Q: What sequence folds into this?
């Protein structure tokens, strides 16, 4: 009967070797085959980790056993099993006498009526992988004579099969990790090869380029400040490509794009079974970036609980995957970015002060687009060259009035907004021109800058007569917006600022002072609205 059970178990184990299974499931099925073959009441697979034996699978024990570890020095039965390998290489198995008085590690854990193991049959075997003890497998039976007639050849064959399963699981796991990392490295290299260049010759950009060259040579953490859409990720790529880690991967993670429940797994990885849906081990961004650079965008969005774990990785280069207590060493250069004032976040208790000081070893400020002057036109030319290929136009250019409109605009959405605006304008221009025309010129009307932000007020402004442009007229007209067009003050920026200030104050009044509602009403990000209000001195 035992031979038949062994053949059936062997078929199952060999079949599983050809299947893609998570490591924990492979181990569970292995132990079920052991129980089926030897008719034991409990079977446990334990891995040797330092001075402890840690359960990797348990069949017949209480579930809580999987959360424990067993210091070898405190469990003489485990010591005797392991001693078989140390003393006699050829002998791996040790069977305990049914009357053995040594305490059993599984007392209170085995599924018996009273939870105790009194007189019972117990044996264990050392599992050897690559000429080193990997761990042990134990069998317990409540019948004290269960293993009397056990066939030693079948037992040795099952031990050999267990070792093959474990080595196969380790090889598959290592290969899976290698593939994951290689995919990330490949994606990173492709992104670096085809990523956009940093375009601009303004004094602000020249200063930024000097700072990038300065910080790139070191392994210091860098924190990049800048408004949304200003090009913080591009700066991070430049730092990486100019560093000694340039041949390794640059891994990026947008902290704001992840739900809080997934942040820890994305950063530090997880083991199979760590949470519902975690069917196999997965490397986190830190391990994927090992040897290279990790860029954390919008780091101010990280929950405080994750900030503490991130600090440990930065300080000690050590992490633990979700669901595991085993430490993993990593060598990663960290670059972070934010559009928040992190010093203010620290003062208000939303960001850890110790992490803030670790990150701000070398801060860099990315200038907003409105601070870059004629860089706007350089960027526009670069974007138009890409857009014309996408929409199938021979040549896209800007009319003089369009250039002036671009230079006068405030760009709350920065470079990203410029690219999107030019894409829309190109479609409008293409719509009124034949595709076979040699040159398509974008007019200021195509940009639709004024219409998109101020359409509701332009008619009122144009209809205001010179007699009404005064503080008296303003009070008489109530909430209308008035522009000071005094002939002594024709500076376009001052006129624009004056209009924006009146417009925002009016919209705030209409929304009962609620800045979030106001931002939605005028179609801008709330953080950009706050910055604009600060610049325009709107309380």
A:
């Amino acid at each position: 009967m035992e031979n038949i059970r062994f053949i059936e178990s062997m078929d199952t184990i060999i079949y599983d070797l050809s299947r893609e299974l998570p490591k924990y499931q492979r181990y569970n099925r292995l132990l079920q085959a052991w129980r089926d073959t030897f008719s034991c009441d409990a079977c446990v697979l334990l891995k040797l980790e330092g001075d402890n034996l840690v359960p990797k699978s348990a069949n017949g024990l209480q579930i809580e056993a999987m959360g424990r570890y067993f210091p070898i020095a405190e469990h003489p039965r485990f010591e005797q099993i392991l001693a078989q390998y140390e003393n006699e290489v050829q002998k791996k198995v040790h069977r305990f006498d049914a009357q053995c008085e040594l305490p059993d590690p599984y007392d209170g854990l085995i599924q018996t009526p009273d939870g105790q193991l009194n007189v019972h049959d117990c044996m264990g075997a050392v599992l050897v992988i690559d000429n080193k003890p990997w761990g042990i497998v134990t069998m317990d039976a409540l019948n004290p004579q269960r293993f009397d007639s056990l066939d030693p050849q079948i037992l040795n064959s099952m031990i050999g099969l267990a070792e093959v399963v474990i080595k196969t699981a380790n090889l598959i796991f290592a290969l899976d990790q290698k593939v994951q990392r290689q995919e990330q490295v490949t994606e990173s290299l492709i992104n670096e090869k085809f990523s956009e260049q940093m375009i601009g010759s303004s004094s602000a950009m020249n200063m930024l380029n000097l700072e990038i060259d300065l910080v790139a040579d070191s392994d210091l953490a860098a924190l990049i400040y800048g408004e949304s859409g200003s090009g913080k990720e591009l700066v991070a790529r430049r730092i990486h490509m100019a560093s000694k880690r340039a041949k390794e991967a640059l891994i990026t993670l947008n902290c704001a794009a992840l739900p809080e429940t997934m942040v820890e797994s994305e950063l530090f990885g997880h083991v199979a079974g760590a949470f519902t849906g975690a069917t196999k081990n997965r490397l986190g961004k830190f391990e994927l970036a090992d040897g290279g650079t990790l860029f954390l965008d919008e780091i101010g969005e990280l929950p405080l609980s994750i900030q503490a774990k991130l600090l440990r990785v930065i300080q000690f280069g050590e992490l633990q995957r979700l669901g595991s207590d085993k430490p993993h060493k990593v060598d990663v250069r960290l670059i972070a970015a934010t559009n928040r004032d992190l010093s203010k976040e620290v003062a208000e208790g939303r960001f850890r002060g110790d992490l803030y000081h670790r990150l701000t070893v070398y801060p860099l400020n990315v200038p907003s687009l409105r601070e870059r002057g004629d860089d706007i036109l350089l960027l526009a030319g670069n974007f138009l060259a890409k857009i014309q290929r996408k929409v199938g136009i021979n040549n896209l250019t800007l009319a003089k009035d369009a250039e002036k409109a671009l230079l006068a605009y405030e760009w709350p959405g920065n470079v990203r907004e410029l690219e999107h605006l030019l894409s829309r304008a190109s479609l409008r221009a293409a719509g009124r021109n034949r595709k076979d025309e040699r040159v398509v010129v974008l007019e200021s009307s195509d940009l639709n800058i004024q219409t998109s932000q101020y359409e509701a007020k332009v008619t009122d402004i144009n209809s205001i007569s010179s007699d009404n442009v005064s503080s008296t007229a303003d009070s008489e007209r109530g909430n209308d917006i008035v522009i000071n067009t005094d002939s002594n003050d024709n500076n376009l920026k001052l006129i624009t600022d004056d209009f924006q200030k009146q417009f925002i104050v009016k919209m705030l009044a209409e929304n009962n002072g609620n800045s979030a509602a106001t931002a939605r009403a005028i179609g801008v990000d709330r953080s950009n609205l706050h910055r604009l209000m600060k610049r325009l001195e709107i309380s």
User: Anything to note?
Assistant: The mean pLDDT is 83. The first strand starts at residue 42 and ends at 49. Residues 303 and 326 are 23 Å apart (CA to CA).
